[in-house]
Design brief:
This protein has about 150 residues and is an alpha/beta fold. The protein has one domain: SPOUT methyltransferase, trefoil knot domain (Alpha/beta knot, 3-Layer(aba) Sandwich). About 40% of the residues lie in helices and about 20% in strands. It has a five-stranded parallel β-sheet. The longest helix is centred in the last third of the chain and has 19 residues. It is globular, with a radius of gyration of 15 Å.
């Protein structure tokens, strides 16, 4: 499995970056982070750049306020189904301060949300990578995820 995370903004040295990196090194799948770092881009330009970075034939999951919140076990079930269906690339999108537009939403196979609250974008990266790690652990039957 190859995971791509497309995120607007640059995560500079911080405890959140350390947390992200800690979970990333625990994941057996290949994980690439593609950051859109230009501060001079407007929302439309950010979204065009996001679309240009999506790998071919990838399942696209956008984190969005209009997305569905789901238990980790259901999230893992989705991964398992995609693997069984032969998909090898999954791409996650974390938009900028103004979110994603309909072009990105339309490209997404799934919209997810980490709840109704608004989270700092750098924190969302750490939350996402932990959920990817948790998914891996659920799929291999590891007790990291306890129900």
């Amino acid at each position: 499995m190859h995971i791509t995370i497309i995120a607007v903004g640059k995560n500079s040295k911080s405890s959140l970056l350390d947390l992200y990196n800690e979970y990333k090194k625990r994941i057996n799948w290949k994980v690439d982070l593609k950051e859109i770092t230009s501060k001079n881009l407007n929302n439309e330009q950010e979204n065009k750049q996001i679309l240009s970075l999506i790998p071919d034939k990838a399942i696209v999951i956008a984190l969005d306020e209009k997305g569905k919140s789901m238990p980790s076990s259901n999230f893992a079930d989705k991964f398992k189904k995609w693997q069984l269906d032969g998909f090898t690339n999954i791409c996650f999108i974390i938009g900028g301060a103004d979110g994603i537009n309909n072009d990105v939403r339309d490209k997404a196979n799934m919209l997810i949300s980490f709840g109704e609250q608004t989270w700092p974008h750098m924190m969302v990266r750490s939350m996402l990578i932990e959920q990817i790690y948790r998914t891996q652990q659920i799929l291999i039957g590891h007790p990291y995820h306890r129900q």
